[in-house]
């Protein structure tokens, strides 16, 4: 719950006091911002610290230090240092490039200019010189340099407009209004004589809250709220100029507070890898110890008689010394280049996601964005998908469709909205032509229907009770609204002749059927997700005080007065709307007496000057006046499903991904959306959990669990539907477990009316107790919690602002892109990363275990069989390319197949391609290979007479044989692992072998011209001229790999997977052969359907892949493959 | 936040095959026909090569005589290091039943001598051996300097432990006086060793070039007097020395000692008949439980015996064939099988 905690922590930050025109007393942080990780001086220490805090790098640093001890290193002093340096330099360059970009951007921002009042005159200064307490003058179109309190502006009513899209992504303009107390402060003289102080809360990251109080000398304190605050990063619009007092600067601005780095998520594969590295480290220690013991035994045996080399007396000291020697000797077992290889691989994978044209939303030109590359492979393992509804499954483009006024329902009942005609239209066209259109309403209004007054009141309410800002664009009025529902309503009533035309801070003007009505706005009681309603208190043109309220049905109904009418009718209409999948709002009003209002106003003023917990006291205060409502009716707004949502959900379900919809919306609406997006099928039985007490919840859960009986824990064709109230009890630790079991037994889960925190709690519950990979997808601020909680968070960059996107790991524009992101990128990346990791370990074990084998023939003395530099360049040059191409270009099968057969996703989802078993199997394979690679050249050269001319050889001659064979074998093994060979694979595999041979040739001629590698001198001419070398060159890699090939072939034949079949189909298609017939989407429910099949393919053996859940005919589950003889001609292999 | 959106726009992706991951690629599919034909071809090739290699290995004539036990007296004498100045010789007669055709090479072979010990291999000075810096004995511990501090040339444990037996092969023609088989002591080193890696320090004569250095403790003569017959075969350029300095990979190893000079009776090679080795036994091996032997051998196109490789090729060929036959059997039984997917 880190997200929640951080919210609470910053809530209790200290109060700050800002003294006006007393710059010396205001000492806060500078307005310089730096989003960069490093500065010129801090780069080296900080970068090194970050690198060496990674276990593997620290280990190699430790080895490097060990190597500096004289004589301890059998591989020279710098052979680990150099590859380590190369690796650090590569990732250092990446860091520098990224950081340089940040520095440039920061510099650009810091040196922007603004006008500030200094020493009684306006001065142009740079942003970084702005201090807290400064009075800043900004003009139209400018970005604001810091968070400030608005003093005055050029506009009447001291208002101004700001665009906040940088902060929250909302595209509408926001209105801000200065305090009347400061409205007249406009000249330099007035401003310089200003004295007093501002007290306000400390810096925090909430955009929409601000509590402060202005104390002007000689005047009573005035409260300052979010309406007076202009934030850094926002842009001034439609306003000539404004003046403001800076309250937060630099890192303390809300903009910067929100750019705090998110906690790092690590992928499952990475965790497994880290564990294996640790195990490998212990193995390394074990090997070193064994070798030390070997050395002691050898010394016991031979030590006395080694006259040709006076060995030191063997003591405990030299035991320790030997241990270090062997640790250095075997340390390369841990692949030094793994981290940097993975970094590069994942970086490119993330770019592939960013580049993908299939995930490019043409509508607003948005590409998918991988905001982190850590989790690329996690995308291939998702088992539980938690989806928000509004804006995620739906477009979040609201259209006012229907309403009920005084018990009469209005709305178009015409054409079906799901007809293909509409789907082909762009969203904006749809919203225009599907809008509310019912002549009956106007008829009733004009013809003096008994409900006419209600209709007038209803439409007036919709015109007045909102926070929409109208913007005139010639004749048109553009409505700027933070809530798309409000905009839809205002637009809807505009068509009916009630046009909302002007808003000033204190008035709202409505053109009702051609007649201008001005309402004085007394108070706006804002909407919040807690309150689920918003109200305005207005003085009507006739002088009455009236409270208009619109909100969720539950909160409105509990506040209705007894003599409110149409309750029943409206309720049934509400249900009807919800069934249609529409979003509903109830509207009601209450008339207030002057006395009541004045009394409440005093209460309100008191509450609004509280500094701590102001929101809470305000809400309480609002609650006191929002009562005794008279119901007018309800509105229904349609939120259309996004394109291809049902198809995507069907595909994801086939990929064995469980989809849970977590929404704040009403249960009926949610169920309806679930139907229309095919999450719940019509025939699917539903379990509804709606209880309002702990006992009831407990009982309901237990009852349902019992009803399921043995089927609990298995996937059943059931839908579980529950709400936030019930979940409050269900998530209680006592029944949490059984509730989870129940939920896991259902194919679809729907949770409605959830608070953001509950969404996160559910994700946490599944994450902790199921141990499967979870993905949360959402678009709004209320989804941030679950997006951060889930293993993978996906944000929809939609209409509801940037908050979800900014907290996500991947951002996509449409829900349907999830299909490609998971099934193609996820599956591919998982295969790629796991193959890359396994291969990196494989190649290191192959080469470096040979040192161990060699120890057995050299008396455990620590001698290495290869030349120092060849060893250290192995990872960074000779075998560095194959893992990269494996990690970047490998494709298990084509994109098309992955999308057509979502079942393929199960392979990566189950993680069978990478777990401890697979890892150690690969290590065992490497062990066998290394043994063959040592033993065969050893036997070949044992005779010592392998050269023409009878020359005898030395140990490095053997070493070069082995090294060459290792490079060839390891590269070919990469080739065997590569299932999709493109030009880069060829380059990497053949290129690596050639690079080694060229290097070998050059390296053997350096000594003594360049004082390096004397032992290599002349090796290449002898090795390459040796017939045995070439004989071994062919046979040794073949012997190694033929084992793998046979193993693979056996597995392909005996234990054929879907992947193999699809791959075969693809390759035969590529070769222009007739592919095996594949029947898609055909339903065969019973054994009686087989004759139909048989007609399709006479005289053929058939293999049926039937999902285990079908189960309509009985085949003993004990034997996975059963031969069914249907008639004389056919054999059915049922798996 | 501002920045990222700007970045995103400046880097609009384009629609290339690389970026859309649509590069043309060959799908490596282990299809039955592919694997089978590959296996058959490999099998044929391996079996063929295997037979050729085994046959050529059979054509090699090789004779090895271990002389540690035969010269037991000498071996015993050498166990005590103080007897280093006592000469001990030993003669080993043997009968060669078949003529050794072509070039014949004489090797000495040591058993249980670890030339591949880490600190042993370390104990040499390549810069000294290349003649540039005679005084560079830094790595040569524990044989870098004599007691009085003069640097040893050639320094180090490898040089110190040089094989110093003398082996002379004599041939008894018609049971009369044995004649010495003519042997060449040159041309037994790698070309790069003789001409690049080992160089004498430049001076008027060798003894002055090595002035200021002393001989290794186990050596009887200084380095510039190793070969009394051929003055060019002295100093660091002595062939036996160079051969020894290439340290072997295994504790049992051969080193080329001499090659037959094909003149007189020996133009065809070594004729069958009675021979004897006359060995001056200097090199102690019993102290480390080792053995010594002398080997006479001919070579083929692939150098020495390639019996092991021949076996490997044959076995690999056989196994691939076996595998391919069994796979073909499986494949044929499943040939008509077609795949059908039923999706729910």
UniProtKB/TrEMBL annotation, chain A:
Span of domain P-type ATPase C-terminal: 806-1055
Membrane recorded as keyword: yes
Transmembrane spans: 47-66, 78-97, 275-299, 319-342, 918-935, 955-975, 987-1007, 1027-1047
GO terms classed as biological process: neuron development; phospholipid translocation
Every P-type ATPase A domain range: 112-176
Membrane topology: Multi-pass membrane protein
Binding sites annotated in the UniProt record for Mg(2+): 388, 390, 779, 783
Pfam families, alphabetized: Cation_ATPase, E1-E2_ATPase, PhoLip_ATPase_C, PhoLip_ATPase_N
Active-site feature positions: 388 (4-aspartylphosphate intermediate)
Example GO molecular function: ATP binding
Reaction catalyzed: a 1,2-diacyl-sn-glycero-3-phospho-L-serine(out) + ATP + H2O = a 1,2-diacyl-sn-glycero-3-phospho-L-serine(in) + ADP + phosphate + H(+); ATP + H2O + phospholipidSide 1 = ADP + phosphate + phospholipidSide 2
Annotated signal sequence range: none
GO cellular component: plasma membrane; trans-Golgi network
Keyword Membrane in record: yes
Enzyme class of the recorded protein, top EC level: translocase
Compartmental location: Endomembrane system; Golgi apparatus; Membrane
UniProt keyword terms in alphabetical order: ATP-binding, Golgi apparatus, Magnesium, Membrane, Metal-binding, Nucleotide-binding, Translocase, Transmembrane, Transmembrane helix
InterPro entries for the chain: ATPase_P-typ_cyto_dom_N, ATPase_P-typ_P_site, ATPase_P-typ_TM_dom_sf, ATPase_P-typ_transduc_dom_A_sf, ATPase_P-type_domA, HAD-like_sf, HAD_sf, P-type_ATPase_IV
Domain P-type ATPase N-terminal stretches: 18-81
Stated family: Belongs to the cation transport ATPase (P-type) (TC 3.A.3) family. Type IV subfamily.
Designated name of the protein: Phospholipid-transporting ATPase
Species of provenance: Ursus maritimus (Polar bear)
UniProtKB/TrEMBL annotation, chain B:
Protein name per Swiss-Prot or TrEMBL: Cell cycle control protein
Signal peptide (residue range): none
GO biological process: phospholipid translocation
Spans through the membrane: 34-57, 318-334
Pfam family, one: CDC50
Major site of localization recorded for this protein: membrane
Keyword NADP: no
Protein encoded by which gene: LOC103673253
